[in-house]
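6,7-dimethyl-8-ribityllumazine synthase, Hyphomonas johnsonii MHS-2. Tokens?
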Amino acid sequence: MADRVLIAISRYYKHISDELELGAMEALKAAGAKVTVMEVPGAFELPGLIAMAADSGRFDGAVALGCVIRGETSHYDYVCGESARGLMDLIVQRRQAIGYGILTVENEDQAWVRADRKQKNKGKDAAEACLAMIKFRKELIG
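Tokens:
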């Protein structure tokens, strides 16, 4: 049976998140996964969506995709820290298989290098991490 994977994506920086999604989608499709894409307003909301998806029982894992670019205020620190903490809580406390693909960068140039499928392709990396964790969970927990 194909792995059922949610791509949870923040479109706040649309051109960056679109490229992350393409990278993730290529990896998931190559693995034969059944993919559903759902959007949230920003990175802060990603853990909430993934928690709801986990509660639904419809998914074997999730890929969290988005981008947070440092601005002039401390808002960046809260969004980055709390979204990462929320996802880590789901991973550790609820044994969720989550690939982390939220870019946390200083500027848009850094974001593009990491998102671009011809460069660092972090969407692909996050999808592959999710698939690996699904495999481990199936082997260890059932």
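The mean pLDDT is 96.
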